[in-house]
Amino acid sequence: MKTLLLDFRLFITLVLISSSVLVLDKVGWLNFPKIVVQTVTTPIQYGIYESTKVVGRQFSFLTEARFAAQQNVALKEQLAGLVLDKARIQRELNELTALSNQESTLLPRAYSLIPTRVIGVGRYLILDHGTDKNLQPGQAVLYKDQYVGVVRVVSGNTSQVLLPSDPDSKLSVFSQGEAGRSQGILIGQFGSEMLMDKILHQEPINIGDLVYSEGLEGELPRGLIIGKVSQVFTRENEVFKQAKVEGVFDTKNLDVVFVMEGV
Amino acid sequence: MIVPIVLLLLLTFIQSALLPFDLILIVIIVRSFLMNSRSNYYLAFLMGLLVAFLSGQPLGIMSIVYLLVVKVVHSIRLAAFASHWSVSIPVTFITVMIYYLLSKFLLGISLNLWYVPVQMIMVVPLYLIIGFWEERFIGRSVIKLKI
């Protein structure tokens, strides 16, 4: 009985200490010590992350050899089609260039981007910058004009990025293909997949269509590539269609990403 | 006590850089199930601070969650039916669900049921490893009988 009482006293003491630490952290009094400690921990995290990537690459050929052979055949077929498309597009481009020379053209979009290094990836992507680079929750994270995620939590020298495949992520998007455009909401599923929901039946969407951000959230500009449609679910008795969307690159292979300062 | 701390430190770094689920939680659950020791509270407190720090969450929040988990496991461990090792699996299930509910309320992180089976599967090897370690390599104070 005495031991149980002592255990309970220890439990309560530690919970109270944890609560005090939590309050101090929320107030911001622990920011400086956190930044100091992060100068040691961030290189270790980065080292582990990079080492695992190197080891993974060494053994990836074992699992990917069969897939690569199948992909090679498919790519050869695609290449033949692309050569024909290229010739057609080149001709059209020449015509359009001639036309656009006579019109005033719009300036390309330019964003102010903060480069950050990826130091971990689990459910969230962990970056090696936080309040030190004035990152804020809600800022978009990009990689080569493609949407990676949105900053979720920021601390001294690190920040967490919510990936679009996370179930907590919801984005208004549109898909664009040869058949036309359709609008919907992109909801993360566990794993690397996303579900584009609330697509009207009359709007065309096909496998291979690219999915772009709609830009209604405020922190995201319109037109960032988010993924590619891999499957379309059409049920006549339901009001909306759905489509499965897969990312265009593997989040686990990113070294550097860019945080957008403002739209 | 030093070896578990060093191993947990290493695991925490690996978890923060690579794993999408909480491995430290499973280690703490299994250790609490194996040993009704006060050191579990200290480990939960320290590892909670480190996990929160490395994953960018507010400091202290994971300590509270881990401490509650240890308390729950110790309470279940007092029951007579909890002496068999297989009880550790449902105990892990219950505590993992409590952990997810606390994460949902305290951090606003949604429940990921896909990782629950993975965490459950990890209980058995971890139970064997930690049990073997604690039994063979950790010294206990000598019990003296008064005659």
UniProtKB/TrEMBL annotation, chain A:
Residues 72-99 form a coiled coil. Keywords: Cell shape, Coiled coil. Gene3D superfamilies: Rod shape-determining protein MreC, domain 1, Rod shape-determining protein MreC, domain 2. Residues 123-260 form the Rod shape-determining protein MreC beta-barrel core domain. GO terms for biological process: regulation of cell shape. GO terms for cellular component: plasma membrane. Belongs to the MreC family. This is Cell shape-determining protein MreC. It comes from Candidatus Daviesbacteria bacterium RIFCSPLOWO2_01_FULL_40_24.
UniProtKB/TrEMBL annotation, chain B:
It comes from the Bacteria. Keywords: Membrane, Transmembrane, Transmembrane helix. The chain crosses the membrane at residues 7-30, 42-69, 81-102, 114-133. This is Rod shape-determining protein MreD. It comes from Candidatus Daviesbacteria bacterium RIFCSPLOWO2_01_FULL_40_24.
